[in-house]
Amino acid sequence: MRAAIRNRISRRSYLQTPIAAELQEDIRAGVDGLNRESGLAFAFAEDAGKAFTSMRKSYGMFSGVRSVIVLKGAADLPDLAEKLGYYGEQLMLDLTDMGLGTCWVGGTFDRGQFAIPNGETMLCVITVGHVAEQSTKEKLIRHALSRKRKPVSQRLRGYETAPAWVLAAMEAVRLAPSAVNRQKPVFTYDGGTVTAAVDASRAMDWIDLGIAKLHFAEAAGGRFTFGQDGRFLKE
Ligand SMILES: Cc1cc2nc3c(=O)[nH]c(=O)nc-3n(C[C@H](O)[C@H](O)[C@H](O)COP(=O)(O)O)c2cc1C
Questions:
Q1: C or N terminus of the chain, fewer CB within 10 Å?
Q2: pLDDT tens for residues 69-94?
Q3: Is the same domain home to 42 and 156?
Q4: Which residues cross the membrane (predicted)?
């Protein structure tokens, strides 16, 4: 399993050390590459800490945030929320490889701090920056949110007949981040085919589906089609 999948955890306290110019270039190049591939309009905002200073909007969950990736795209792009999850998670794993701390943020930030062009929708941001050892406060927040994961048997229909490569990829799905750690996306193995679905009531659920599919695809080698019951295509 890719080390970034195994090692990533949500980080909410950042050091004051800015991201060096060279590393910023790498991040921007990564963002541009994913935008070209996906049709999304992600943007690296180097100095966006203001979105995390309002106690009313951020509940004091984060400290020292300076840079974020704004996750947005054309409002009429098909499967916008799911794609945002799929490509956003790809970026998050790359940022993890760069040694940076990250966290998906869909709720606890001040959306009003970002000027979003007409016709585009922003659903989330990913905070990004240098981190030290987890502070006590960070540990308490993660404990309160619970990092507990459901067993694979609860996330995979057809668990009893699934081959080893599917179970290995489901382990990567199990470790995926999800909004409020809900872990809603469910996979199905049936006669050699893998599909994924989510009982969606909010945009965040579709984002979680995209994230879960990316983890599966990354571990099993291949890609997923978008949409409810999208199929896995092994390379
Ligand atoms: C779509 C999405 C939105 C999230 N929004 C927030 C948020 O607003 N505030 C926050 O502190 N964490 C947020 N998280 C982080 C989750 O709480 C976290 O991924 C989950 O609790 C699992 O913990 P882990 O990432 O450390 O494995 C979000 C995660 C996802 C995937």
A1: C
A2: 999 999 999 999 999 999 999 999 99
A3: no
A4: none
